[in-house]
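Why do we bother with holo predictions? Because pocket geometry can differ from the apo form. Keep that in mind while you read this record for copper (II) ion.
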Amino acid sequence: MRLRHRLTALAAAIGMGAVLATAGASAASAHDTLENTDPAQGSTVKSLSSVALTFSADPLGTDGATVIQVIGPDKKYYETACPDLNGPVVSSPVALGAAGTYEVLWRVVSSDGHPISGSYTFAYAPDGTATAATAGSANPKCGPKAAATEAPATAASADSGLWIGLGIGAVVLVGVGVGAWALARGRRS
Ligand SMILES: [Cu+2]
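The structure, written out:
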Protein backbone atom coordinates (compact mmCIF):
# COMPACT_ATOMS: atom_id res chain seq x y z
CA MET A 1 0.00 0.00 0.00
CA ARG A 2 3.01 2.27 -0.36
CA LEU A 3 1.70 3.61 -3.68
CA ARG A 4 -1.56 4.69 -2.07
CA HIS A 5 0.48 6.32 0.67
CA ARG A 6 2.51 8.31 -1.89
CA LEU A 7 -0.64 9.29 -3.73
CA THR A 8 -2.00 10.64 -0.47
CA ALA A 9 1.20 12.69 -0.07
CA LEU A 10 0.75 14.05 -3.60
CA ALA A 11 -2.87 15.00 -2.90
CA ALA A 12 -1.80 16.68 0.33
CA ALA A 13 0.89 18.70 -1.48
CA ILE A 14 -1.61 19.91 -4.08
CA GLY A 15 -4.11 20.71 -1.33
CA MET A 16 -1.47 22.74 0.49
CA GLY A 17 -0.81 24.65 -2.74
CA ALA A 18 -4.51 25.46 -3.03
CA VAL A 19 -4.63 26.71 0.58
CA LEU A 20 -1.62 28.99 0.02
CA ALA A 21 -3.13 30.25 -3.24
CA THR A 22 -6.38 31.15 -1.46
CA ALA A 23 -4.45 32.94 1.28
CA GLY A 24 -2.58 34.93 -1.38
CA ALA A 25 -5.80 35.89 -3.13
CA SER A 26 -7.46 37.16 0.05
CA ALA A 27 -4.36 39.22 0.93
CA ALA A 28 -4.63 40.87 -2.48
CA SER A 29 -8.29 41.73 -1.99
CA ALA A 30 -7.44 43.46 1.29
CA HIS A 31 -6.19 46.56 -0.54
CA ASP A 32 -7.97 49.68 0.66
CA THR A 33 -10.19 51.20 -2.00
CA LEU A 34 -10.95 54.83 -2.76
CA GLU A 35 -14.56 55.28 -1.66
CA ASN A 36 -15.22 58.97 -2.11
CA THR A 37 -13.56 62.05 -3.57
CA ASP A 38 -14.17 65.75 -3.08
CA PRO A 39 -14.54 67.13 -5.68
CA ALA A 40 -16.28 64.14 -7.24
CA GLN A 41 -14.96 62.57 -10.40
CA GLY A 42 -16.31 64.34 -13.47
CA SER A 43 -17.91 67.15 -11.43
CA THR A 44 -17.56 70.88 -12.10
CA VAL A 45 -16.58 73.21 -9.25
CA LYS A 46 -16.78 77.02 -9.10
CA SER A 47 -14.21 77.26 -6.34
CA LEU A 48 -12.01 74.81 -4.50
CA SER A 49 -9.70 75.06 -1.50
CA SER A 50 -8.80 71.41 -1.03
CA VAL A 51 -8.99 67.94 -2.53
CA ALA A 52 -10.06 65.20 -0.11
CA LEU A 53 -9.99 61.46 -0.74
CA THR A 54 -11.76 58.98 1.55
CA PHE A 55 -10.54 55.38 1.60
CA SER A 56 -12.21 52.20 2.86
CA ALA A 57 -9.66 51.96 5.69
CA ASP A 58 -6.93 54.15 7.20
CA PRO A 59 -3.94 54.33 4.85
CA LEU A 60 -0.55 54.04 6.53
CA GLY A 61 1.22 57.34 7.13
CA THR A 62 4.50 56.17 5.65
CA ASP A 63 6.88 59.10 5.20
CA GLY A 64 6.79 60.49 1.68
CA ALA A 65 4.44 57.76 0.44
CA THR A 66 1.22 59.78 0.66
CA VAL A 67 0.88 61.92 -2.45
CA ILE A 68 -1.81 64.10 -3.97
CA GLN A 69 -0.94 66.05 -7.09
CA VAL A 70 -3.45 68.36 -8.79
CA ILE A 71 -2.44 69.04 -12.38
CA GLY A 72 -4.05 71.86 -14.33
CA PRO A 73 -4.87 72.21 -18.03
CA ASP A 74 -1.42 73.79 -18.41
CA LYS A 75 0.22 70.65 -16.88
CA LYS A 76 1.34 72.69 -13.85
CA TYR A 77 0.80 71.62 -10.25
CA TYR A 78 -1.82 73.36 -8.11
CA GLU A 79 -1.60 71.59 -4.74
CA THR A 80 -0.09 73.98 -2.22
CA ALA A 81 1.14 71.53 0.42
CA CYS A 82 1.81 67.87 1.04
CA PRO A 83 -1.27 65.81 1.97
CA ASP A 84 -2.71 65.53 5.47
CA LEU A 85 -3.64 62.06 6.63
CA ASN A 86 -6.61 61.98 9.00
CA GLY A 87 -7.96 58.46 9.51
CA PRO A 88 -9.32 57.28 6.17
CA VAL A 89 -9.20 60.82 4.69
CA VAL A 90 -6.21 62.12 2.74
CA SER A 91 -6.42 65.77 1.73
CA SER A 92 -4.31 68.51 0.20
CA PRO A 93 -4.96 72.26 0.01
CA VAL A 94 -5.14 73.65 -3.53
CA ALA A 95 -5.19 77.03 -5.23
CA LEU A 96 -6.41 76.57 -8.78
CA GLY A 97 -5.38 78.53 -11.87
CA ALA A 98 -7.21 78.89 -15.15
CA ALA A 99 -10.58 77.32 -15.88
CA GLY A 100 -10.43 73.86 -17.40
CA THR A 101 -9.92 70.21 -16.61
CA TYR A 102 -7.81 69.31 -13.59
CA GLU A 103 -6.38 65.87 -12.92
CA VAL A 104 -5.91 64.51 -9.40
CA LEU A 105 -3.12 61.95 -9.05
CA TRP A 106 -2.95 60.14 -5.74
CA ARG A 107 -0.84 57.48 -4.08
CA VAL A 108 -1.11 56.07 -0.56
CA VAL A 109 0.10 53.01 1.28
CA SER A 110 -2.93 50.77 1.81
CA SER A 111 -3.52 49.60 5.40
CA ASP A 112 -2.28 46.15 4.28
CA GLY A 113 1.11 47.71 3.46
CA HIS A 114 0.76 47.77 -0.33
CA PRO A 115 1.10 51.04 -2.26
CA ILE A 116 -2.01 51.89 -4.27
CA SER A 117 -2.54 54.78 -6.66
CA GLY A 118 -4.98 56.25 -9.10
CA SER A 119 -6.20 59.39 -10.80
CA TYR A 120 -9.38 61.17 -11.78
CA THR A 121 -10.44 64.47 -13.28
CA PHE A 122 -12.82 67.29 -12.43
CA ALA A 123 -13.60 70.59 -14.15
CA TYR A 124 -12.94 74.06 -12.76
CA ALA A 125 -15.26 76.84 -13.92
CA PRO A 126 -14.82 79.91 -11.66
CA ASP A 127 -17.58 82.50 -11.45
CA GLY A 128 -16.62 85.55 -13.52
CA THR A 129 -13.43 87.26 -12.44
CA ALA A 130 -14.06 87.20 -8.69
CA THR A 131 -11.44 84.50 -8.13
CA ALA A 132 -7.87 85.29 -9.05
CA ALA A 133 -6.14 82.48 -10.90
CA THR A 134 -3.07 81.12 -9.13
CA ALA A 135 0.07 80.52 -11.10
CA GLY A 136 0.78 76.82 -10.94
CA SER A 137 4.10 75.29 -10.02
CA ALA A 138 6.35 73.47 -12.47
CA ASN A 139 7.04 70.87 -9.79
CA PRO A 140 4.74 68.96 -7.42
CA LYS A 141 4.76 69.71 -3.69
CA CYS A 142 5.06 66.03 -2.90
CA GLY A 143 6.16 62.94 -4.77
CA PRO A 144 8.16 62.67 -7.95
CA LYS A 145 7.11 64.61 -11.02
CA ALA A 146 7.19 61.34 -12.95
CA ALA A 147 3.97 60.37 -11.13
CA ALA A 148 2.13 62.40 -13.76
CA THR A 149 3.07 59.88 -16.42
CA GLU A 150 2.77 56.76 -14.27
CA ALA A 151 0.30 54.08 -15.17
CA PRO A 152 -3.06 54.32 -13.34
CA ALA A 153 -4.14 52.11 -10.42
CA THR A 154 -5.58 49.40 -12.64
CA ALA A 155 -2.10 48.66 -14.00
CA ALA A 156 -0.71 48.48 -10.47
CA SER A 157 -3.27 45.93 -9.36
CA ALA A 158 -2.75 43.91 -12.55
CA ASP A 159 0.92 43.91 -11.57
CA SER A 160 0.34 42.47 -8.11
CA GLY A 161 -2.14 40.01 -9.65
CA LEU A 162 0.63 38.79 -11.93
CA TRP A 163 3.01 38.27 -8.99
CA ILE A 164 0.34 36.43 -7.01
CA GLY A 165 -0.32 34.26 -10.08
CA LEU A 166 3.37 33.49 -10.44
CA GLY A 167 3.56 32.68 -6.71
CA ILE A 168 0.59 30.31 -6.95
CA GLY A 169 2.14 28.68 -10.04
CA ALA A 170 5.42 28.15 -8.21
CA VAL A 171 3.69 26.66 -5.16
CA VAL A 172 1.67 24.26 -7.30
CA LEU A 173 4.76 23.24 -9.32
CA VAL A 174 6.72 22.54 -6.14
CA GLY A 175 3.79 20.58 -4.72
CA VAL A 176 3.46 18.46 -7.87
CA GLY A 177 7.24 17.97 -8.02
CA VAL A 178 7.45 16.79 -4.41
CA GLY A 179 4.48 14.52 -4.94
CA ALA A 180 5.93 13.01 -8.13
CA TRP A 181 9.28 12.47 -6.42
CA ALA A 182 7.58 10.77 -3.48
CA LEU A 183 5.59 8.64 -5.92
CA ALA A 184 8.71 7.61 -7.85
CA ARG A 185 10.52 6.73 -4.61
CA GLY A 186 7.51 4.68 -3.53
CA ARG A 187 7.51 2.72 -6.77
CA ARG A 188 11.26 1.98 -6.60
CA SER A 189 11.16 0.54 -3.10
CU1 LIG B 1 -2.74 44.60 -0.68
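The two ends are 12 Å apart (CA to CA).
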